[in-house]
Write a structure and sequence with these properties.
ribonucleoprotein, elongated, Ribosomal_uL5_dom_sf, 3 strands, Large ribosomal subunit protein uL5 N-terminal domain-containing protein, 50s Ribosomal Protein L5, Chain: A, 3-stranded antiparallel beta sheet, alpha+beta, Ribosomal_uL5_CS, 68 residues, Ribosomal_uL5_N
Length: 68
């Protein structure tokens, strides 16, 4: 029988807008993992979604090793 091991855990929260909701999402990830999350930016401007290029719209964090 094989032992299953988790090497990496990727957590992602995509809010779709910058501002208060994004900072709250980053605080949630920081409390869950104990690490500072990284902000992800929009690649393109999408007028129907109301986002602009290079606007911060999400946060993610990768947990490796024993923490995962």
């Amino acid at each position: 029988m094989r032992d299953l091991r988790i090497r990496k855990l990727c957590l992602n929260i995509c809010v779709g807008e910058s501002g208060d909701r994004l900072t709250r999402a980053s605080k949630v990830l920081e409390q869950l993992t104990g690490q500072t999350p990284v902000f992800s930016k929009a690649r393109y401007t999408v007028r129907s979604f109301g986002i602009r290029r290079n606007e911060k719209i999400g946060v993610f964090c990768t947990v490796r090793g024993e923490k995962a």
